[in-house]
Write a structure and sequence with these properties.
This protein is mainly alpha-helical and 373 residues long. It contains ten helices and two strands; from the N terminus they run H-H-H-H-H-H-H-H-H-E-E-H. The chain has a two-stranded antiparallel ribbon with strand order 1-2. The chain is globular, with a radius of gyration of 24 Å. It holds the Pfam family 7tm_6.
Length: 373
């Protein structure tokens, strides 16, 4: 997996208790790591429950919307860890598909193709992590720049009981929990999102590798290798959809709610700092959603290009009948390839991206009308 350009993602997962790769370590080490994972899950779950309870007691629409916003983020973080822990073996098996001989480069040109997409996956992970880290830094620092500054006990997120300024113990515990959530939630969410985006990028790399092989396939055996390679790519895409599709759908729905909440908060807030804070958070959510939809759209576009590559074979006129039949069948199958889906019915495409943004704005309009009444 580390040779595929996703090593940064899995290093973050290991650090945060979401990916135990200590297969060669003793039972005690594995047990301690398991306890570490349980503690992380419990802390996130407790914080989520506090947010939900506080939301039910809220009468102020702004605070309620803010709590709903953060609850969606924390919920997504919790289920992302659960998926990585529960589907650990399935994810490893999926990654092994790219290590099969048909998916490996055979010459320098093919190595350059895969290396380019590997670099793209790495660049995406690093840039989104940096972008998320900058945003979280703004969110942490911003509360201390207004509303009493350092003299007032400011919290990043408000939970039930945290507004009791007379109780120092409650404040300290809540603040530590606050920082834990930021320190764990940000890199985990960013790494998980770029993991899926990176897998899609690697899928595109395999398609381009297939294009190159199809153009130079002059014998029936080479064409059979291309057919087998195409089947592995389709299998890999199907694994991505099966493993992450449901969670991506939940993430898309929550992103729609979060974008709506952030726009609503930006409209209501009078402070420039508050608006800037919300704008930073909003930009991260939009980029996060774009990572899924853009790369899903790219995978579909690349899959449709297989048909053109089969017809661009340099030796088409000299190929045998069975070779031409094999290429035509591959071409037909590529036309029938469906887009990557979230939960089997939501296509990951730029059209879906625009649809989610429109739905967010519609929710914002409805929320604004309800609050004005």
């Amino acid at each position: 997996m580390e040779s595929l350009g996703l090593e940064l993602n899995f290093k973050v997962f290991r650090l945060l208790g979401a990916w135990n790769s200590s297969g060669s370590q003793n039972g005690t080490t594995r047990f301690l790591y398991f306890l570490y994972t349980i503690i992380v899950l419990m802390l996130i779950f407790i914080y989520l429950m506090l947010l939900i309870v506080d939301t039910f007691f809220q009468k102020d629409i702004t605070t309620l919307v803010g709590n709903l916003n953060i609850s969606c983020v924390v919920t997504a973080c919790y289920f992302k860890i659960l998926l990585l822990v529960i589907k650990h073996k399935e994810i490893i098996d999926m990654m092994k598909i790219l290590e099969l001989n048909d998916c490996k480069p055979n010459n320098e040109i093919e190595r350059d193709i895969l290396h380019r997409y590997k670099d793209k996956a790495q660049f995406t992970s690093k840039m989104f992590l940096i972008f998320s880290a900058i945003t979280v830094t703004v969110l942490v620092i911003a509360p201390f720049t207004y509303n009493g500054g350092l003299e007032k006990r400011n919290l990043l997120f408000r939970v039930r009981g945290s507004d009791d300024e007379k109780n120092l113990f409650i404040y300290v515990i809540t603040k530590l929990h606050d920082l834990f959530l930021v320190g764990f939630g940000m890199p985990l969410n960013a790494s998980f999102d770029t993991l899926i985006a990176g897998l899609m990028v690697l899928t595109c790399g395999q398609y381009e590798l297939l294009y190159d092989r199809l153009r130079h396939a002059t014998t029936y055996s080479k064409i059979c290798n291309c057919v087998r390679h195409h089947q592995y790519i389709l299998k890999f895409s199907k694994c991505i959809e099966d493993l992450f599709g449901t969670l991506v759908f939940v993430q898309c729905f929550m992103s729609m709610v979060i974008v709506c909440c952030l726009i609503y908060i930006m409209v209501l807030m009078k402070s420039v700092v508050d608006r800037f804070e919300s704008a930073c958070f909003l930009s991260v959510m939009l980029v996060q959603l774009l990572l899924y939809c853009w790369n899903g759209n790219e995978v579909f576009s690349m899959s449709q290009g297989v048909a053109a590559s089969t017809l661009n074979n340099e030796e088409w006129s000299n190929l045998s009948i069975r070779s031409k039949k094999a290429l035509l069948l591959m071409s037909i199958r590529s036309y029938n390839t469906e887009q990557l889906k979230a939960s089997s019915f939501l296509n990951l495409s730029l059209t879906t991206y625009m649809m989610i943004l429109k739905a967010s704005y519609s929710m914002f309009t409805l929320l604004q009308r309800v609050s004005s009444d």
